Amino acid sequence: MKKFFWLLLLALVIIQFFRPEKNIAATTATTDIATKYTVPADVNAILQKACNDCHSNNTNYPWYSNIQPMAWWLASHVKDGKRHLNFSTFTSYSYKRADHKMEEVIEMVEKNEMPLASYTWAHKDAKLTEAEKNTLINWARQVRTEIKKDSAF
Ligand code: HEC
């Protein structure tokens, strides 16, 4: 039992050296959603506190993100989140894809599927109020109108 404990401790020490690369961009991407579509300050504040950690090129890391295996777990969420939707590369999406993503935003927020429960558990202020949800949903609808105007499909 004692031997097992020491091995576990050793393993924990060793994995600390394997750090995933952090998701931090030096500048705002030229393909950021705000470069083309309207993102009012109140919407931006909601995205910033509840979505951008996993859906943009800039994650605001908590202290425990420096500890393994926590960092791996966070990195996989960020990678997965960005693969599905990245506000930093939003204008590089086709109109059809961008429109569909906004449709998904409305659905995810309505169904309380986003932000992820594991995220709001650690970030209490990211739990959206009904008013914040409405703000986000109305904004996503607005962006869909803008996309439609742009593309005329
Ligand atoms: C902790 C990380 C995290 C946070 C915070 C987060 N998401 Fe996600 N999001 C994910 C992951 C991971 C996926 C993909 C897997 C899934 O659907 O569960 C995803 C999927 C999505 C999708 C589906 C995209 C598609 O077409 O498949 C939408 C839309 C979305 N998120 C919107 C949001 C919005 C809006 C917020 C803020 C209110 C938010 N997310 C906050 C991690 C996150």
Helix content range = 55-70%
Give helix and strand order, one letter per element, not per position.
HHHHHHH
Bound molecules: heme C
Number of helices: 7
Radius of gyration: 18 Å
Largest sheet: none
CA-based shape: elongated
Total beta strand runs: 0
**Low-confidence parts:** none
Strand content: under 5%
Q: End-to-end distance, in Å?
A: 67 Å
Oligomer: single chain
Mean pLDDT: 96
Number of domains: 1
What class would the helix/strand composition place it in?
mainly alpha
List keywords for this structure.
mainly alpha, binds heme C, 153 residues, single chain
Structure description:
The chain is an all-alpha fold and 153 residues long. It is 57% helix and 0% strand. The longest helix has 22 residues. The termini are far apart. The model has no long low-confidence stretch (mean pLDDT 96). Heme C (HEC) binds next to helix 3, helix 4 and helix 5.
Give a summary of the structure in a few sentences:
This protein has helices at residues 2-15, 41-50, 52-55, 70-84, 95-110, 117-122, 130-151.
Secondary structure layout plus pairing:
Blueprint lengths: L1 H14 L25 H10 L1 H4 L14 H15 L10 H16 L6 H6 L7 H22 L2
Heme C binds next to helix 3, helix 4 and helix 5.
